[in-house]
Automatic annotation (TrEMBL):
This is Resolvase. It comes from the Eukaryota. Residues 4-137 form the Resolvase/invertase-type recombinase catalytic domain. Keywords: DNA integration, DNA recombination, DNA-binding. GO terms for molecular function: DNA binding; DNA strand exchange activity. Belongs to the site-specific recombinase resolvase family. One of its GO terms (biological process) is DNA integration. InterPro entries: Homeodomain-like_sf, Recombinase_CS, Resolv_N, Resolvase-like_N_sf, Resolvase_HTH_dom, SSR_resolvase.
Length: 184
C-alpha cells in the first residue's frame, strides 16, 4: 500500500499566505501552524508527527518552515524517517528517507545551517532598518493596546488597591503590560 502525501505549512504572521507554500502539489492532508518557528507549541506539527505512518511522505516548502535551528531540524527529520516516513523539502529540492547516505546527512546539516544563517541575516537587516527608521523619526513600533482613557482608568484602579492580575484579565492584557504602562 502506498502511503499518504502530507503537507506541513507554517506561517509566522497572519498576513502571510499559507496557500503559496505548497501550491500546485497534490496532497492528501495538510497541517498548518500559525506560529513563530521559535514557539515550542506547534499543535499542527505535533498532530502531523502523531499521524504520519511508514510509507507516508511529508512535504514541507523549506527547512526553515519545519524548524528554526539545525538541532531541531535534525531531530524532526530523524523522528519522521525513523518511523519509515519520507520527508521532502520543496525549496531545497531534497528528500530524506532514513536510508540516507553520509552524504545525504551532510546535505541536511549544510542546508539547515544555511537556512539558519539566512534567518540571522534577515533579523540583522530588520534591526538595521528599524534603527534607520527611528533616526528619521518614522518608526512607530507596535500599536499601543490601551487608549489614553484606559491607561488613566488603569492607574486609578491600581491606586485604589485593585489587584493587577484582575485588572489584566479585565483588560485582556498581561500583567507585564500593566507594568510597562506604569513605567511610562
Amino acid at each position: 500500500m502506498l502511503g499518504q502525501r502530507i503537507g506541513y505549512i507554517r506561517v509566522s504572521t497572519y498576513d502571510q499566505n499559507p496557500d503559496r507554500q505548497l501550491e500546485g502539489i497534490e496532497l492528501d492532508r495538510i497541517y498548518t501552524d500559525h506560529a513563530s518557528g521559535k514557539s515550542t507549541r506547534r499543535d499542527q506539527l505535533e498532530e502531523l508527527l502523531a499521524f504520519a505512518r511508514a510509507e507516508d511522505t511529508v512535504v514541507v516548502h523549506s527547512m526553515d518552515r519545519l524548524a528554526r535551528n539545525l538541532d531541531d531540524l535534525r531531530r524532526l527529520v530523524a523522528s519522521l524517517t525513523d518511523k519509515g516516513v519520507r520527508i521532502e523539502f520543496v525549496k531545497e529540492g531534497l528528500s530524506f528517507t532514513g536510508d540516507d547516505s553520509p552524504m545525504a546527512r551532510l546535505m541536511l546539516s549544510v542546508m539547515g545551517a544555511f537556512a539558519e544563517f539566512e534567518r540571522a541575516l534577515i533579523r540583522e537587516r530588520q534591526r538595521e532598518g528599524i534603527a534607520i527608521a527611528k533616526q528619521k523619526g518614522v518608526y512607530r513600533g507596535r500599536q499601543k493596546c490601551l487608549s489614553e482613557s484606559e491607561v488613566i482608568a488603569l492607574r486609578s484602579r491600581i491606586a485604589a488597591g485593585e489587584k493587577k492580575a484582575q485588572i489584566a484579565r479585565d483588560l485582556g492584557i498581561s500583567r507585564q503590560t500593566i507594568y510597562q504602562y506604569l513605567d511610562e
